[in-house]
Amino acid sequence: MEPVDLAVTALHASVDDPALNSMNFLNEVAQHYPDAVSLAAGRPYEEFFDSAVLHEHLDAFRRHLADDLGLSPAQVDRTLLQYGRTKGIVHHLIARNLAVDEQLTVDPEAIVVTVGCQEAMFLVLRALRAGPRDVLLAVAPTYVGLTGAARLVDLPVRPVTGGPDGIDLADLRDQVHRTRAEGLRPRACYVMPDFANPSGVRMDLAQRRRLLDLAAEEDLLLIEDNPYGLFPAADAERLPTLKALDTRRRVVYLGSFAKTVLPGARVGYVVADQRVAGSDGTVGPLADQLAKIKSMVTVNTSPISQAVIGGALLAHDCSLVAANVRERAAYARNLRHLVDGLARRFPAGGPVRWNVPAGGFFVVVTVPFAVDDALLHRSARGYGVLWTPMAHFYDAGTPVNALRLSVSAVTPEQIDLGLDRLAALITEESAGTVGTAVSARTAP
Ligand SMILES: Cc1ncc(COP(=O)(O)O)c(C=O)c1O
Predict the structure, then answer these.
(1) Which candidate, 207, 223, 299, 211, places its Cα nearest to that of 255?
(2) Atom 14 (ligand 1): residue with closest C-alpha?
(3) InterPro entries annotated for this entry (predicted)?
(4) Short-list 139, 141, 136, CA closest to 126
(5) Which of the four pLDDT bands, split at 50, 70 and 90, describes residue 444?
(6) Which of 31, 52, 92, 150 has the greatest number of beta carbons closer than 10 A?
């Protein structure tokens, strides 16, 4: 046996937690089977990538600093090349983007530009976790990045039933009451109202309003995560974000440019306009407190990356709806293709079922057997198709009879091939489970 210097049990408990292993595990499976069709990856479509536009975006942002903001050449260079403002340098353009695309009026000072949405999650959860009685509520199934970030700050996550409406409000109220009755403090509830990852479900307008009312009645914050809102299916309308409907500062809003501009820039943001009373008697936005945490985690988000995003925003008058016309069409086409392909391969009323999301990247397929990591390996090795076990999005150890398919990084031809292979796997597995009781739960 190799000599060891440290036991993992001597490190923070999060490093040995399944939530933190999930992304690595899925990446490793994908790397191990490079020829498999991946209906697993939630990455954006690469056909539209073009590194030549990076220079155009950088130039556009430099011109903006000089011409629109009146910076001297030395100040422009300093802004791009030096350590910078902790809350970011494209906050004003993000505020404009939210006004243009979401009809949302936001004070730029309430925005912190982060290293991806992932850092925004971490900052918010770090700030909210004030003591051992604090817990986070989150709609289940939940994005694994949120669960992992909560583990890093020792914030327990309590699941709230999601269901076909996006969130079961009776269960949310129940969880809030039960948590408080136990002497604990529910600090916030994490929700993805638009085409959630992994469920694909979205909340309708009435449900959004009811959720905001409940949050006000129960004195609860909502953390709204919205990376997929710009991608409704062809015939679907976009709906207002919770934040756009929020008149009581109940919503902390998380944004990501990974799907709407490019993931390699690693730029996201948080809108945190909640008023915080400081110990010195001053009052300012929660964003200022998050910035203090950020200053000790990443200091500031790379100004070069921010400039690329800023230039991309400027290229379309700050409208990402306008910037993503091709992308929206491709994702909508793929979603339709996947759902139609499932219908052709599995009979209606049979044991294999799926939801038909109104947009986004993901579809959940329910099957008559438990789906685990071992099955994913068998699928990759024996059938050449990758997908994500839904168990990754629930509390560790809960078997789930479902898998997540993603349409974002594939062509229609790859979808056809992947579905043929998936159908072969499901037929084989179903034959193996005929007559056996299936006790795992179904999702979503
Ligand atoms: C729901 C959700 N939130 C956040 C993210 C991460 O965003 P970013 O790449 O900006 O960190 C993802 C990425 O897949 C996601 O699905």
Answers:
(1) 223
(2) 42
(3) Aminotransferase_I/II_large, Class-I_PLP-dep_aminotransf, PyrdxlP-dep_Trfase, PyrdxlP-dep_Trfase_major, PyrdxlP-dep_Trfase_small
(4) 136
(5) very low
(6) 150
